[in-house]
Amino acid sequence: MTHWHAATVAEVESELATDARAGLAPSEALRRLAGDGPNELERSVGPSPLAILGRQFASIVIWVLIGAGVVSAALGERIDGAAILAIVVLNAALGFAQELRAERAVAALARLAAPRARVLRGGHSQVIAARDVVRGDLLVLEAGDLVAADARLVEASELRANEAPLTGESEPVSKSPAALAAKTPLAERRNLVFLGTSVAAGSGRALVVSTGMQTEVGRIARLLEHASSGPTPLQLRLDALGRRLLWACLAIVAAVFALGLARGTDPFELFLGAVSLAVAAVPEGLPAVVTVALALGVQRMVRRNALIRRLPSVETLGATQVICTDKTGTLTVGAMTVRRLVTADAVYRVSGEGYGVAGEILEQDPAAPDRGPLVALLRAATACNDAELLPAGSDAAIAGDPTEAALLVAAAKAGLTREALEREEPRVHTNPFDSDRKRMSVVCARGAERWAYVKGAPESVLERCASVRTARGVESLDESIRARLREACARLAAEALRVLAVAERPVADANEGDVELGLTFLGLAGMQDPPRAEARDAVAKCHRAGIRVVMITGDHPDTARAIASELGILRGEEEVLVGAELESMTEADLEARVERILVYARVTAEHKLRIVRAWKRRGFVVAMTGDGVNDAPALREASIGIAMGITGTEVAKEASDMVVTDDDFASIVAAVEEGRGIYDNVAKTLAYLLAGNAGELAVMLIAAVFGYPAPLLPIQLLWINLVTDGLPALALATDPIDDGVLERPPRRPDAQIADRAMLRSLALTGALTASVALASFALVYEGGGPLEDARDAAFSTLVFAELLRAVGARSDTRLVHEIGLFSNLRLFAIVAASFSLQISIHHSEPLARFFATRPISLALCLSWIALGALPLLVLETRKWIRRGRGSGASPPA
């Protein structure tokens, strides 16, 4: 049977061949356990660790780096080669660890099952291991129990279940055995209880209809196995760049080798030069730069309450175009809060959030002449209440129903506590809340008198009231006042507030037949899980940054719409869609409309997964936030999954790429800011590296074309690659993040990291550095100087040019003096130290012999530095001209 919620208890009993009063016979339960297997979530057999490790070497960039490392070692540069290979191993280890997360996520789902369960078998109650529960078992449920399997209720007494981990519903759900319509959404199936949820209040009995992988949590586990976020934008860009670099380098190296052969150069010398040129052309320091930039970003994010579980996710955040976010606890405080109080004379606004008692009650409209009716309202709401506010430091903030706890918090803001009230008016009788009556009442002793206090649904309480308390005293409740109170209820409901009415009356006898008649109406309390104060600003930041915010929640559509409007998510013609409507849409329909729908209500795990996939099919980089089991598949499928650290389940955290430790949407936006800044640092570092390599290639190629001897020796090429590409690039990757990164739209996901603008800038920069190096070489060589002196000039001029250019590569819009030489002390120190090393190469005899250099005079050294400064001066002048024209800036080079 598919629709257990649509069947009657008798039909369920017949279908499962069980007894709704006595449960299964013990022998039948053992037979079913042997046939169906244990009530556990399966773990699929994934690829072996060796296969996962092998996948880490599928990138062409990795093989280029391996080749570069081997060649460097073969040429005697063992330290350089070892460093390159160490980078490869580090990247592979990170990827290997990342792919093992899938196994942990499914394992976390398995740990959701309740360890023990109480069942009736053969009419006798017994406690068994949850894994031994079978279809047809009769579960006995009480407050505080974890539900061991999906089950159909056969009886319930004030039963309420916390289903937030599965459905996203923020409040406990009242349960009833009555059959429902077949098309009832999952979140509204009041006659079912589900594996992984818990009983908040009341008691009941339920027949198990699904166990293990057949449960709703089991279905989510299967979705989780097949969900995949795919490679990050940075990984895709670097892979594409690696392929282009490989072919470009091979072509240039082949050209230089062929020209040398044509001129009769020794083949072995040509081979060494060509290989050295190939090593110099590939930016083997790039993975290290990316790793350092991401690692530093992770450290900064921890200080901003974001914990990254996967390094490439830092960059993905910077490319995020859509944030699909849960409502409860992320955009809202995750705690019911009284926001409005209404008496016959006034409306009050209640400040503060959640279960903290900080806040106050302020008159809103009109000003109340007397707070007596307000105090009476709060006293009655406190007396007719079974919740408890726990002391600070407890594992939980409250005990009991969140709605009742919200009333206690409101009373505390007026100086009333349940403990003090109970001493004054001890309770003598209780009529518990009933879903048919829709109200609760208590009788308390007030000295020698007895008073009844009632709270419940407004329509249920108001119809039993004969009078109303006003500032002038108790007055008759005529039709005009009733109409005014109904209008107040409608206004509160329009604000998506849950409304409760409160009333009282004196009681002659605690055993009086119906104490809920002839009541005096005291007022209304409107409450909701309110938006976080900082979430509104965070949403506004997203809009300025070109990021769309989509709310996906299991709550009622009216509540979702009100919160979304208050936060600024809904601003115009955007649509609100309910899960039932989404159910009837095809994938093509959803994809066509997904960009117009910014709020989804009453959704399931499958719905969330479909929404994320629809955005991805439209070409967007999607971040998904969540905390429950039902969020896990979508978290895994999203470009980046973000779990909540406080309220998040273990399943959600294991499926995510990032955990927000304070459950705050503003922390997500801060992480996006960090991600953008990190990408900027990676991009400008890449531009710096490639421009330097382009200059080295150009020097060798142009010299070969014009018939010059090689201006640079193989060992000199490797030294240039080490001293100008390594440490300066790492220092660039640590640059402070520019202000205003959230004032521009996100990068397009199909944009190449080395786009046309960057390539044009690379070509110019490479030409400038090659020109000054060749000019210094030609001045000496054509002037009749020794070839060794000409090589010295080209060698040092190129190094000086690259080091000076690193200072200007920090920004593609601001000039060096505007940035400040000392705003990145690492870079300043590295450039200064590298200058000293380069000069020492000419004056240290062992180094001079190793690099084939000669001592130089101060004047000659200064002339090479002056020549090397020309590319920086030209590029700074270009920035100034472009900024004056107001043209778009290209990536730095």
Describe the protein's architecture and organization:
It is a single chain. This protein has 893 residues and is α+β, with helices and mostly antiparallel strands. Helix content is 49%, strand content 17%. It has 33 helices and 27 strands. The strands form four sheets. Strands 10, 11, 12, 15, 16, 17, 18, 19, 20 and 21 form a ten-stranded mixed sheet that branches. An eight-stranded mixed sheet has the order 8-27-26-25-9-22-24-23, with helices on both faces. Strands 1, 2, 3, 4, 5, 6 and 7 form a seven-stranded antiparallel sheet that branches. α23 links the parallel β25 and β26. The radius of gyration is 36 Å and the shape is elongated. The two termini are 66 Å apart. Residues 109-114 and 887-893 have low confidence and may be disordered.
Structural class: alpha+beta
DSSP summary, beta strand count: 27
Instruction: Report the total helices.
Output: 33
Instruction: Report the uncertain regions.
Output: 109-114, 887-893
Question: What does the oligomeric state look like here?
Answer: single chain
Strand content: 15-25%
Helix content: 40-55%
In this structure, how is the largest beta sheet organized? 10 strands, mixed
Q: What average pLDDT do the residues reach? A: 83
Distance between the termini: 66 Å
Net shape: elongated
- What is Rg? 36 Å
